[in-house]
Design goal:
- With 465 residues, the chain is an alpha/beta fold.
- The chain folds into three domains: 113 residues, Orthogonal Bundle (Fumarate Reductase Iron-sulfur Protein, Chain B, domain 2), CATH 1.10.1060; 163 residues, FAD/NAD(P)-binding domain (3-Layer(bba) Sandwich), CATH 3.50.50.60; 152 residues, FAD/NAD(P)-binding domain, CATH 3.50.50.
- The chain has 17 helices and 18 strands.
- The strands form five sheets. The protein has a five-stranded parallel beta sheet. It has a five-stranded parallel beta sheet with strand order 6-14-7-8-9. Strands 10, 11, 12 and 13 form a four-stranded antiparallel beta sheet that branches.
- The longest helix is centred in the C-terminal third of the chain and has 19 residues.
- The chain is globular and about 65 Å long.
- The termini are far apart.
- The relative contact order is 0.13.
Length: 465
């Protein structure tokens, strides 16, 4: 018996000094030999803990062994049997805290690079199978389902419901489908061609997508139910920005991360003037927050030509909520981290343009309800940083429009939709389900997909009586 190989195959990437000046994808992906070599490291253990660690229960050992043996169409079929968006998941899902962390080889720090293999299989299909691997839905049931929102939760729910044989229509408020995958995540981390390829797969299952359709404005949930839809799934995400609430926050040059990233990603402001979306280009940019959205904002600002970009975060490096990979990418590209730092007030000039931020130094006290040590202001520690653009990336909450226009839908004090059965996303309103960030607040793509998948199974059960 040959010894277990604990050395992961490294993913080729653009060099930091090159990628910091372009919006092309940072991680370049495996070639077949690299993917097959990594796949050979999977020991095909009997307990399959990786499957239990996956929110959408992908048959991970099976698709890996098919890849290892060069049976690529089998690998695609197995992977997409459970996951309608593998090209997206392989790029942005935190496998290191889900399927990979429970890999049997993780005990020896040699876990299989499941996400990278998932990405390889999805990209192989996109590049080699015109129209993708065909999937035949079940016979039509005659039941109609409305999906509100075309982000990861909505797309996943729609794909599964279509496979069950139901007539599915997605209502999307924006002019292009994909939700946060299109407006929130930069091209260099998630190419938009990949997103649209996954959207096209969902459409190939028979799902209809109505764009520029703001539910709560052009039609209400109750009107959809009265119009022949027998179930509604809410997957509108959490697109309402949270602000710092400090003096000077209304100065010019201060963005919410939502607005900044939407301009850059969806509206392609980085290609100005080819795309005529304006975005203020700062030379000294401060980003407030420590999550993936903060990393995305900082790295975009750098690529737009900033001389210096700061991440200001009130805790230490150990508490940064962003994926470690994204933190390291940002540091390699030149983003400067000012940790244990919190803003006190913004400073402006006579034209009401931000030109500085006054900050406190912080220290960590006892853990708070999140389990992380609570940041405490150091008295008399104020200092100022010169900036000309600020981006606030400290979190989001659901847009209140759906709740305000839907009688009988219950929401929490944080604006999230209350579900009476968390396992399947049933709300307190009859015939209405919800899942993803609209229920949990801002979380991960894969957790939203898991919620969409569970809700779809329960909706199918409900529709079949």
């Amino acid at each position: 018996m040959s010894p277990v190989n604990l050395k992961r195959v490294e993913m080729p990437r653009q060099e930091p000094h090159v990628r910091a000046k372009n919006f092309e994808e940072v991680a370049l992906g495996y070639d077949f030999d690299q993917a097959a070599e990594e796949a050979k490291r999977c020991i095909q253990c009997a307990k399959r803990p990786c499957v239990a660690g996956c929110p959408v229960a992908v048959d991970i050992p099976e698709f890996i062994i098919a890849l290892r043996d060069g049976k690529m169409q089998d690998a695609v079929r197995i992977l997409k049997g459970k996951n309608a968006l593998p090209g997206i998941c392989g790029r942005v899902c935190p496998q290191e805290t889900q399927c990979e962390v429970v890999c049997t080889l993780a005990k020896k720090k040699g876990q299989v690079a499941i996400g990278r293999l998932e990405r390889y299989v999805a990209d192989w299909e996109r590049l080699n199978l015109s129209g993708g691997e065909p999937v035949k839905p079940a016979p039509p049931t005659g039941k109609k389902v409305a999906i509100v929102g075309s982000g990861p939760a909505g797309l996943t729910a729609a794909a599964d419901l279509a496979k069950y044989g139901h007539d599915v229509t997605i209502f999307e408020a924006l002019h292009v489908a994909g939700g946060v995958l299109m407006y929130g995540i930069p091209e260099f981390r998630l190419p938009k061609a990949v997103v649209q390829n996954e959207v096209n797969f969902v459409k190939s299952l028979g799902v209809k997508i109505e764009l520029d359709s703001i539910v709560g404005r052009i039609v209400t949930i109750d009107e959809l139910l009265a119009d022949g839809f027998q179930a509604v799934f809410l997957g509108t995400g959490a697109g309402l920005p949270t602000f710092l609430g400090i003096p000077g926050e209304n100065l010019n040059g201060i963005y919410s991360a939502n607005e900044f990233l939407t301009r850059v990603n969806l509206m392609k402001a980085y290609k100005f003037p080819e795309y005529d979306t304006p975005v203020k280009l700062g030379k000294k940019v401060a980003v407030f927050g420590g999550g993936n959205v903060a990393m995305d904002s900082a790295r975009c600002a750098l690529r737009l030509g900033a001389d210096v970009v700061y991440i200001l975060y009130r805790r230490s490096d150990a508490e940064l909520p962003a994926r470690r990979e994204e933190v390291e990418n940002a540091k390699e590209e030149g983003v400067q981290f000012k940790l244990l730092t919190a803003p006190k007030r913004f400073i402006g000039n006579e034209k009401n343009q931000v030109n500085g931020v006054e900050c406190f130094e912080m220290e960590l006290g006892e853990p708070d309800e999140s389990g992380r040590r609570r940041p405490i202001i150091k008295p008399g520690s104020e200092f100022a940083i010169e900036i000309d653009v600020a981006i606030v990336a400290i979190g989001t909450s659901p847009n209140p429009l759906i709740a305000q226009t839907t009688k009988g839908l219950e929401t929490s004090k944080h604006g999230t939709v209350v579900v009476k059965d968390e396992a399947v996303g049933r709300t307190v309103k009859d015939k209405v389900w919800a899942g993803g960030d609209i229920v949990t607040g801002a979380a991960t793509v894969i957790s939203a997909m898991g919620a969409g998948k569970k809700a779809a199974a329960d909706i199918d059960k409900f529709l079949r009586g």
